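Final report, Chapter 2: Outcomes

The project's central promise was a pipeline that accepts a single protein chain and returns its three-dimensional structure in a standardized token representation, suitable for archiving and comparison. That pipeline is now operational. To close this chapter, we reproduce one record exactly as it appears in the project archive, with the input sequence first and the structure output second.
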Amino acid sequence: MVSEWIIDVCEYFNLHISTVHAAISYLDRLQPSEKFTRPQWQMLAICCILIASKYNECEEHVPDFSTLEEITQQPMSNETVLSFELWALKKMAWQITTRTTITFLTCYLMSAEGLENIGECLKPEADCFGKSRADLNAYLRKKIYSYSTKVLLDNQFKKYLCSDIAIAILLYTRKVCDITPLWTNELTDIVQCDPFQSSKVEAIVYIICGLEGISAFEKLGSVFTFAKNNTFVSSELLTDNDKIDTKSSPTSIAVSDFSEEIVPTLADREGMC
């Protein structure tokens, strides 16, 4: 998978998770219809990583060409990489500021960590039981970032707003970590949404439960009680508008599935001057 390869490369260079999400967001926005070869898809993925890292990281953290050549096992000239970058930037209309799920999660977490009461784990058998406030915050952040990466790789979430996905991940993480209270009015004020009154957040939580297995679904299903009918709404009762679009996207296609096609050239660079 192209997106998984991007994640592996970003982890190899210890890039921030926001850089990972931005790079994959760029790939989704590019939506290349051309059928590239494996090396061409690698170059496209690399240009997304480079653009994201140049925008989000310190200069010394931007991946170097020599290491990228070792990873891809193909030579890369400055001109070739530049032509891919300029082609991508032109196709995105130079709009490289992107609000991803991790953007909202980071804001929510920073605000939540300042609350007087963030909750606590009262179950001795839980991994986070007895942790200090700082350790609990760090534990929840790690779990939340892990879930956000899983969501990033699944095409079912493409139809939802990143803000709604972030709220669902925050709620899901607090539930599976047995945090009490599960939710507070202060958290509602931070995310500007009551997750128990949002059918979209509910649907996203059910999808996450599906990724984690039946046991997670059974554990979380009982928390959704809607004010409109005060009853549990099963995922089987979703309307047609709530059905998940499983249409494939570039991030869910293996790079080996593409045949040769024309790639960006320096002509793109000249046309943008």
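Archive annotation: The domain at 2-97+251-272 is CATH 1.10.472.10 (Cyclin A; domain 1).
This record, like all others produced under the grant, will remain available to the consortium after the project formally closes.
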